[in-house]
Amino acid sequence: MDLHSYAPLHDVALAPRSHRGVFVMEGQVCSILDGYLTLDQTAKELGIHVVTLKRWKARRYGPVPVRVGSRWYYRRDDWRTFFENEDKSARRRSRGG
Fold first, then answer.
1. Domain-by-domain residue ranges, the chain?
2. Three-state secondary structure of 78-95
3. Alpha-carbon span 60 to 65, nearest angstrom
4. Where are the beta strands (DSSP E) in the chain?
């Protein structure tokens, strides 16, 4: 791919308001932060309050977030892995192993 195949998102009719780091390539919207969630988005997906998520972060419970400037992001896949590992640990504890 050459650089000319990328177009800034503001050239797209249905562009969201915030479009930093977002590009359109062959009709697909691509973002540098694809797969990453803000604290608010993460809390909403987990069905918890953002204060609970911040408390977990302070207690180092859950995956390690990524800091970009003053914002924190979680990788969606990191949460899946974390919960899978938690589930395996809980099963081992319940079996006494």
1. 1-32, 34-97
2. HHHHHHHHHHHHHHHHHH
3. 10
4. 6-8, 22-25, 28-31, 36-38, 66-68, 71-75
pLDDT per position as a tens digit, 46-71: 999 999 999 999 999 999 999 999 99
Note the pTM of the prediction, 2 decimals.
0.62
- Cα distances from 58 to residues 71, 76, 86, in angstroms, run 15, 19, 19
3-state helix, strand, coil in the chain (%, to 5): 45, 25, 35
Q: Please give the single-letter amino acid code of residue 66.
A: V
34-97: which CATH architecture?
Orthogonal Bundle (1.10)
